[in-house]
Structure formats: structure tokens, C-alpha cells
């Protein structure tokens, strides 16, 4: 068995700035890999994330260090031991799933006992801006079943209320991206309840979430930055009621699938999200998203241009990619 590996970076400009508590993105900066074997190609994509001390250069270097073993036939199980969880492993894991499914003629969905792809409700994100602009942004997507509101520690209640007034019927997720402290969280409980927020995502810094132990939140709290792999679950008990599974954190679909089932056994509610990526990054996440209560996979809404045969959004419903796009 001999494989050929190709690694490259790619930038997908956004149609508008994407603002969260820790910064602004103007483009989706991704790393794509291709693994070719016996005339067949498997593809994968990842998003290096500075929050986890990753860059495009560092991720590409990590992938390159595994070139010899990949060329010699390293599989997904070996990959889990060879590379740590993170973006580099995610891209390679996705490419291996794709390659293996095409070589054996069994689509990934069938390997995971899933039926044919179907549309899923996904959150559409309103990024941080003035309350007035966030209200206008929410008005444009008011018919979406699920909206995610990005906030920080600066006047979050006014921003949440602005979105709720523009979209009175949508379910809401609020995501401070670690920008609150326990006092802000406590003070905002009535406002979150009035706005009928369904889920509050990572309000406190992951390193400071001991403050959540015993905290009587009126809104279920979801671990994002605090949850990467199955090994994190024991310390999340008593702090969070849900977890956000992202393949760039788990290091790919292989570990994400394990985390999904382990978290369910532990009684956690499941959310599936992603970084700002293209359809190639979303496609593997869809296999986990089918099993989730909350889905947040809306990057096609933000990209100026995506893969033409990738996923699309229609009224808050995520349409699956064209047959054969990824995963056989």
C-alpha cells in the first residue's frame, strides 16, 4: 500500500465580518489534505484555531511530520495515537474516512448505520454588533427555527433582547465565548429567562469553570472550549448540562463519534458545531449532527463562495451536499 499526500492552505472570504468575544474574522482560513491511493482520493479539511495555540503553519507542519506513516498505510486507529486531538488530526481523519469509504464502496453513513442524508435545522449566527444592527440582522433571518447570538461582557442583555424582539419565535442559543464571569452570569439569569434562551454556551473561561459547580442556572449551560475529547467528560459533570462537539477539537469524526456516545451515557445533551469552514469541513460533522439536539453548522451563510456541490442553507435548514461530495 502506498499513498500520496497533498497538503495546502486555502482562504474563503466571508460576506461580512464575523465578530465574537475574542476577535473578528474576515475569512475562513483552512488547511485541506488529499490522500490518494490506487487512483482514489480522500479529502479532509480543518481550521487551525489560535485559541488552541494553532496556526495554519503549525498545523501543516504537524501533518507533514506524519507523511511517512500515512504513505505507508497508517489508518484511523493509529492516527488517534500518533497525533493529539486538534485541527491537524481532524483533516487527516476526515481524509481517511473519505478514502476508505471510496475504496471499499461503503459510504460513511452506512458504516455508522445512518439512513440517507436529510435536511437538518441549524443555528444561524448573529455576530456581535450594536443592539440595533443585531436586531436588523435577526430580522433578516427571523423565520429561522434556531438562532445563535454571539455576545461578550459589554451589554449582553440589550443584544439578546434586540435579537429576541426581531425573532420572537426562534429558539435561541447565546454564546459569550468565555467572556463572562460568574457575577455576570448570575446577574443575567432573569434576562436569559425572559428571552426564553434554550442554551447558554461556554459563558465562563474554561479554566475558571469551577465557579459553575453547584451554580443553579435557569438555562442549560453547554461546554464548548471546556470539552474536546471523551477524556474531558468526568470533570464536566456538575458544571455543564450539555457539550458542543466540534471535529477540530476532537481531532476528527473518529473521536467525535466516541465522544457522542460517551456523553450520552453520562447524561449530557448534545450540540454539534464547527469553526468557520467550508462544506468540506462540515460534511463529516453532519454524521454526528444527525444525533444532536442542537446543530450549529451555518458557515455557508457566511462564505462568499463555497464548494458548488457542498451544503446549502434554506430558511434555517441545512441541506446535505451532493451525493459523492464526501464520504463515498
Task: Return the structural class.
Answer: alpha/beta
Major beta sheet summary:
8 strands, parallel
How far apart are the first and last residues' alpha carbons, in Å?
20 Å
CA-based shape = globular
What is the CATH topology of the largest domain? TIM Barrel
Number of helices: 13
As a percent range, the share of helical residues equals 25-40%
Rg value: 19 Å
State the CATH class of the largest domain.
Answer: Alpha Beta
Low-confidence stretches: none
- Order of neighbouring strands in the sheet with most strands: 5-6-7-8-9-10-11-12
Please provide a written account of the structure.
This protein has about 325 residues and is an alpha/beta fold. The chain has 2 domains: about 5-110, Enolase-like, N-terminal domain (Enolase-like, domain 1, 2-Layer Sandwich); about 120-320, Enolase-like C-terminal domain (TIM Barrel), CATH 3.20.20. It contains 13 helices and 14 strands. The strands form 3 sheets. It has an 8-stranded parallel β-sheet with strand order 5-6-7-8-9-10-11-12. The radius of gyration is 19 Å and the shape is globular. The two termini are about 20 Å apart. The model has no long low-confidence stretch (mean pLDDT about 95).
Amino acid at each position: 500500500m502506498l499513498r500520496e499526500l497533498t497538503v495546502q492552505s486555502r482562504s474563503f472570504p466571508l460576506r461580512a465580518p464575523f465578530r465574537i468575544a475574542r476577535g473578528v474574522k474576515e475569512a475562513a482560513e483552512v488547511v485541506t489534505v488529499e490522500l490518494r491511493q490506487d487512483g482514489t482520493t480522500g479529502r479532509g479539511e480543518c481550521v487551525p484555531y489560535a485559541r488552541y495555540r494553532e496556526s495554519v503553519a503549525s498545523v501543516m507542519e504537524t501533518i507533514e511530520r506524519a507523511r511517512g506513516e500515512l504513505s505507508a498505510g497508517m489508518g484511523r486507529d493509529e492516527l488517534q495515537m500518533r497525533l493529539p486531538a486538534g485541527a491537524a488530526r481532524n483533516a487527516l481523519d476526515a481524509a481517511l474516512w473519505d478514502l476508505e469509504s471510496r475504496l471499499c464502496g461503503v459510504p460513511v453513513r452506512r458504516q455508522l448505520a445512518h439512513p440517507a442524508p436529510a435536511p437538518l435545522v441549524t443555528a444561524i449566527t448573529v455576530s456581535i454588533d450594536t443592539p440595533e444592527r443585531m436586531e436588523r440582522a435577526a430580522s433578516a433571518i427571523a423565520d429561522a427555527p434556531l438562532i445563535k447570538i454571539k455576545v461578550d461582557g459589554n451589554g449582553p442583555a440589550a443584544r439578546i433582547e434586540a435579537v429576541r424582539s426581531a425573532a420572537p419565535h426562534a429558539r435561541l442559543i447565546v454564546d459569550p465565548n468565555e467572556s463572562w464571569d460568574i457575577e455576570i452570569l448570575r446577574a443575567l439569569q432573569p434576562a436569559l429567562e425572559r428571552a426564553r434562551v434554550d442554551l447558554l454556551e461556554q459563558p465562563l473561561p474554561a479554566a475558571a469553570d469551577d465557579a459553575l459547580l453547584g451554580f443553579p442556572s435557569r438555562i442549560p449551560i453547554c461546554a464548548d472550549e471546556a470539552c474536546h475529547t471523551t477524556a474531558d467528560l468526568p470533570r464536566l459533570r456538575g458544571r455543564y448540562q450539555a457539550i458542543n462537539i466540534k471535529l477540530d477539537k476532537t481531532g476528527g469524526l473518529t473521536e467525535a463519534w466516541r465522544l457522542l456516545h460517551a456523553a450520552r451515557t453520562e447524561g449530557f445533551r448534545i450540540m454539534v458545531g464547527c469553526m468557520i469552514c467550508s462544506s468540506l469541513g462540515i460534511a463529516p460533522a453532519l454524521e454526528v449532527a444527525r444525533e444532536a439536539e442542537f446543530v450549529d453548522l451555518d458557515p455557508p451563510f457566511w462564505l462568499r463562495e463555497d464548494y458548488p456541490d457542498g451544503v446549502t442553507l434554506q430558511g434555517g435548514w441545512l441541506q446535505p451536499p451532493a451525493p459523492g461530495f464526501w464520504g463515498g
